[in-house]
Amino acid sequence: MTSISFDVEKIRKDFPVFSRELPDGRPLVYLDSGNSSQKPNQVIETMREHLALHYSNVGRAMHVLGAESTDAYENARDKIAGFVGAPSRDEVIFTKNASEALNLVAYSFGNPANTDPRFTLGPGDEIVISEMEHHSNIVPWQLLVQRTGATLKWFGVTDDGRLDYTPGLITERTKIVSIAHQSNVLGTVNPVAEVARRAHEVGALVMLDASQSVPHHPVDVTGLGADFVAFTGHKMVGPSGIGVLWGRAELLEAMPPFLGGGEMIEAVWMDRSTYAPVPHKFEAGTPPIVEAIGLGAAVDYLTEVGMEAIEAHERSLTAYALDALRDLPGLRIIGPDSLEQRGGTVSFTIEGIHPHDVGQILDDRFGVAVRVGHHCARPLHLRFGIPATTRASFYLYNTTGEIDALVRGLHHVQKVFA
Amino acid sequence: MIGESMYQELILEHYKHPQGRGLREPYDAEVHHVNPTCGDEITLRVKVGDAGKVLDVSYEGQGCSISQAAASVLHELATGSTVEETLAVVDEFTRLMQGRGQVEPDEDVLGDAVAFAGVAKFPARVKCALLSWMAYKDAVVRSAE
Description:
The complex is a heterodimer. By secondary structure, chain A is α/β, with parallel strands linked by helices. Chain A has a domain at 8-39 and 307-417: Aspartate Aminotransferase, domain 1 (Alpha-Beta Complex). In chain A, 38% of the residues lie in helices and 17% in strands. Chain B is an alpha+beta fold. Helices cover 43% and strands 17% of the residues of chain B. Chain B has a 3-stranded antiparallel β-sheet, covered by helices on one side. Chain B starts with 8 loop residues before the first helix and ends with a helix. The mean pLDDT of chain B is 91. Chain A binds chain B through residues 23-24, 353-357, 360-361, 363-365, 373-374, 378, 381, 387-388, 416-417, and chain B through 1-4, 6-7, 12, 15-16, 37-40, 62-66, 68, 122, 125, 128. Chain B: It holds the Pfam family NifU_N. Chain B: Residues 6-128 form the NIF system FeS cluster assembly NifU N-terminal domain. Chain B: This is SUF system NifU family Fe-S cluster assembly protein. Chain B: InterPro entries: NIF_FeS_clus_asmbl_NifU_N.
């Protein structure tokens, strides 16, 4: 059914970048959407039009442009709340990116300004993450541990790239469990509902880094069972500079502000302040207005195409890629070799050839853009005993023809280094 | 097509058959340099003898073909020369690498290292080529201390 309704050539026409050529007439084969996605006209035009005709600051200007900007900005919040099934629009906080959203939550723990027992943290308390996390879901917790004397623990990763989920790691001492919904390297989709159930049994909170899942799958934040969910605009056909923290309202209300400044206050005296209600309590200063509006247009676009259809399209691309890559000699897939609980991100190594050389030749000769390196997940690479991988990541605008180009490129890479 | 000019036969040869690889005794100084953006790393030792003669440059590392081949070429060029001569080569190599592809390399000074000229056109890879050479410069300074 999907193959009939999903017209990838029509979708590609929405993305101006696919109408360009690279230097020397190479076609662009963009397989790096896990890093950042391309933007459709609908997003570009919405942002351009807002900047051209409706722009002003939000939440404070008492004039027509101020009202139009505020309406558009808050309307984007409504759209995003709807897109991820947030029970209330006030639970959607705009941040700069997913990293800021993760840092915001980490900052709420062990913070003297927060006396809510769910957020107290000190020696003897534990934070649980996993070995497959992006650095943005590792370092904020390391910093928190340094500030508070709490202990950081983590789930390992199995040889086939699955979360080595041992429920016993989550104990009465655990205050928060923070893991990726989908790994940015392995493509693995984690059993987050199961982890959340266990965490809630012991009274711990649960945060999900959904940067790699919200752009690619229908996501309902309440269905995940999490307390906090972070994701970012630029990976979901929206602009950079805008991210989202979703959190359960009563938790957000209990948390202290993260950044102080304009817009996040209720009243200010010289010696103290009271704060605005959520979400504005967490949005100090002039926000990324046009970026938020652009993200609103992005979720409109994705909704119109249909998240189920996008998920199915990526699934067929992933199946095609896994089959094609298996045939390359010396190629080792780092991550699940099956489609089960896995998204459209495929990382691999090629025996005897460093990923930087792979990426360079793919780009220079074939116009194939992949990511090479540790993808901000160095501990995961250490776990597999490798310094780096080559990663192809797919999105709604990719085609099987582009995967063929990748495979042709890889054959050539092997020839150069033979 | 541009990229392949970066992968000169000489670079590929040195990558596949690195010269002087492995850490050896004796040595005067050992340094460890990393390229945090790509994770390439090198541990490098130098042994300097009488009259400033470089007796050995030994190294162990991991990384892409450019970084590994650059270490191998460095070993060949430096071993047997004087420190002073090798530092002149390092300077010329650095000038070439940082020249954004606009610098005409001095082949008399560079020898085989001239094969890396194409790398200079790829800003992201310049650090790969320079990793071992910067480590060498550092080690030589320390060996004199």
